[in-house]
Amino acid sequence: MNSPPRFAVASRRVVTPEGTRAAAVIINGGRIEAIVNRDHVPSEVPVEDFDDLVISPGLVDAHVHINEPGRTDWEGFASATRAAAAGGVTTLVDMPLNSSPVTTTVAALEEKRAAAAGQCWVDVAFHAGLVPDNLADVEPLLDAGVCGVKAFMCDSGLDEFPATGEREFRQILPLLARRRVPLLVHAELTDEHATAVEIRNYADWLASRPESFERNAINLLRALCAEYLAPIHVVHLASGPLTSHFFWAKQDGLPLTVETCPHYLHFYAERLEGADPRFKCAPPIRRKEDRARLWEALIAGVIDTIGSDHSPCPPDMKHLASGDWQSSWGGISSVELTLPIVWRGLRTQIAPFTRVAEWLSANPARLVGLADRKGRIAVGCDADLCIWNHEEEWTVVGEQLQHRHKLTPYEGERLRGRVQRTYVRGQLAYEDGKFPAGPIGELLRRNP
Q1: Main EC class of this protein (predicted)?
Q2: What are the residue ranges spanned by the domains of the chain?
């Protein structure tokens, strides 16, 4: 595929690792050639000036469930990556479930890649899965270029992706320490004294997965990280008080990192007393105080990344008509909405554009081994850019979203920040509801 000609984009707000400034970004051959003052662009280079719009690095979403092959009726590469482009996401990393087969062997990974080929509007990489019977498959999967290894410490919801725990982690962490590839963990470990709860409403769902489940898991993971010095990344942290574990791990120099998700930063349990199963996810959305603590930890640099945990399903699996919380699939679709959700939440915080770019772009790119080319507006990096209006407020209408099924808990929510353009390697992937470049996405491999 031909790279676009040499050109430049300019703004008073170009977000670089060194800060936000007025600048022009010169793009050549799909990469960033230079970042210069607007009046220093060579005369032969065409420039489009976006005035006060923000030019940020394209988002890197390291936590997306695409589900193809096998469950494409839930979500497929075409719809998921169009939604990503509409949300300023230029690189996403696909989780090893809920596709069929799950990505626990090289053969299954190749099925994933074959299914994705020619269907992606943004660049896509892949995580592998860890299950009790695939320990011998992990190193071949690393050799094949997966970005991380995902494990569940509790029931994943799929029989073909059973839980793992300390026994499997002890066997695999020396390898991951040597290869410097992260173990990504769904960190809920059931308390043996917990009693089963019949799930009839949101309060029951919250009570069925208490904070102690997350605490039990994180205590074990922190100890294993200290023992093996292997990179461990806790995904979708919901409990605010547990951020202290990651603060002290950083003080101790441990490679223990953590992600939270847009739904934990936007919603809170006190607001969901009469909520329907659109809001069901695991761990559950916790209290308003938890939300406040998560924001504090982000601002303090304790939480490393924000990932959407885009986890779609057909609408009938949410059981909205019956309100059946017990049987409803747990998962929230938001790959297109991460940036405006986060920016909306920052109305009551103090954080510059550069911090947002760290959470949504630079840190996820580093986590998944793509930081040499992704996640930064810097010379030599891919020209992955998100151009957005940071002042525009708008209301979510599910039918206008790009992911396959339009059901969303964000229906009617007022958000802030609207993506106007998305460039993937210098090509215009999204512009005001249109996708000019077509399926230009490349399939990426983690750098060794």
Answers
A1: hydrolase
A2: 58-367
User: What pLDDT score does 4 carry?
Assistant: 66
H helix runs in 49-157, sequence order: 77-86, 106-116, 138-143
**What pLDDT digit, counting tens, does each position of 90-142 carry?**
999 999 999 999 999 999 999 999 999 999 999 999 999 999 999 999 999 99
Mean pLDDT of 219-237: 98
For residue 283, cis peptide bond before it (omega within 30 degrees of 0): yes
Task: Report whether pLDDT(209) > 70.
Answer: yes
Mean pLDDT value of segment 346-363: 94
Neighbours of 191 (CB within 10 A): 12
CA–chain centroid gap for 178, Å, is 25
Pairing, β 183-186 against β 232-235: parallel
CA distances from 428 to 7, 9, 42 (A): 12, 12, 22
| Alpha-carbon span 171 to 150, nearest angstrom | 15
Each residue's pLDDT tens digit, 294-330: 999 999 999 999 999 999 999 999 999 999 999 999 9
Residue among 391, 433, 360, 416 at smallest CA distance from 90: 360
What pLDDT was estimated at residue 405? Answer: 93
